[in-house]
Amino acid sequence: MSIVKFSMLTYLGFELNSAKDQGLHDLTIREVKESLENGALFELLERRSGIGLDLSLLNLKDRKELGERFLDMAHAVNERRKFGVEKSGLNLLLAYVLEQIQREAGQVPIVRLK
Length: 114
Fold this sequence. Notes:
Blueprint: H1 6-21, H2 29-37, H3 41-48, H4 60-76, H5 79-83, H6 89-105
Helix pairs in contact: 1-6, 2-6
């Protein structure tokens, strides 16, 4: 799989943060995980967003790739222990975004200027 663009991850993170701040009816962790299993995370976010969550910059390929990576995390990570998230599906998604940024940062070669 190719390295997910940092700009795509931060864009999604800012949109989720805005949705939480503007009072988007929160999702449960179960809803998030079920939508990932069904490949319908972004459809769920758009359907539940009464405040204009803008995911238009994420094309179908981006959505599929992010969904796959987040699903891998959903299967492998104990969200309460690793992320400190027990209730909020939006907070879980933000944690997935941060975790993916951390994973990607480890794969990007660091160029040191002399």
